[in-house]
Amino acid sequence: MTARREPLRLVSVLTRRDDEPGEGAATLARYAAAGHEVMVVTCTGDATGGDGVSEVLGAGHHRLGYAAFGRPGGTSFASVPVAEPTERLVRVLREFRPHVVVAHDDTADPGPDRVRCREVSVAAFDAAGDAARFPGAGEAWQPGKLYTVHEWSEARMRALHEALLARDLESPYRDWLAAPSPGTRWITTRVPCGEFFPVRDRVLRAYAGFLAPAVRHRLAVPVHVRQAVWPTEDFELARCHVPTSLPEDDLLAGISPQ
Predict the structure, then answer these.
(1) What's the burial of 184, exposed, middle or buried (CB within 10 Å: 0-12/13-18/19+)?
(2) Rounded to an integer, what distance in angstroms lies between the CA atom of residue 156 and that of residue 7?
(3) Could you tell me the pTM of the whole model?
(4) Which Gene3D superfamilies has this protein been placed in (predicted)?
(5) Which element (helix H / strand E) includes 203?
(6) Measured between alpha carbons, how far is 214 from 16 in angstroms, rounded to an integer?
(7) Which residue segments constitute the domains of the chain, with CATH numbers given?
(8) What is the pLDDT of residues 98-149, one digit of tens each?
């Protein structure tokens, strides 16, 4: 990833705050540390952990303001018509004017809030640059790229599993590798960010009591093993309006400040 004189802007759209550790947190921290502007947008507000977590990443935070699926406190995010949260997110994109948007992978979790978050992220990315759509939501702005995060893959788990066994360490991946594979994901972009894994771990620890074992177990894998075996976070380029070539090692490849 090359240095840039002018900062660019990235938005990560999450279902809720405790998605942060598993959704490209080290990548966001790297770009923030390089002087780029990073914002985390959360669709629902049911997670705990405090507003200070995004600051650990060097990111701002914006809430869309929905309740989580099956939780009291208002209309749940999964049940509202998709146009409503799309307009709210379009307003955020047009105000912040990001060059890159990062969204959930649509295969990792079939939960209704997460599915809706993915739908809204894609719809808002497509609508933000069209002045005829949501004309009351600010001046049109088209982000250059939309990525989805591929946090988990069989290749990653197998590499870490074998590295742990080679070091006579307990592996948390045995059961997952014994289960049927969900299929190969198309990874277009691997961002080197191993030096920021400790930052991601700080975020993970802040939410440890609220996370599923599939995420929480990473704290059992020594950071030096993760840095040595798989020092990237992996993404799929889902939409692109700028010139680039694949594979990439930079979410900002091909983007100019204008």
Answers:
(1) exposed
(2) 31
(3) 0.89
(4) LmbE-like
(5) helix 197-206
(6) 17
(7) 9-152+185-211+231-240 (3.40.50.10320)
(8) 999 999 886 656 678 888 999 999 999 999 999 999 999 999 999 999 999 9
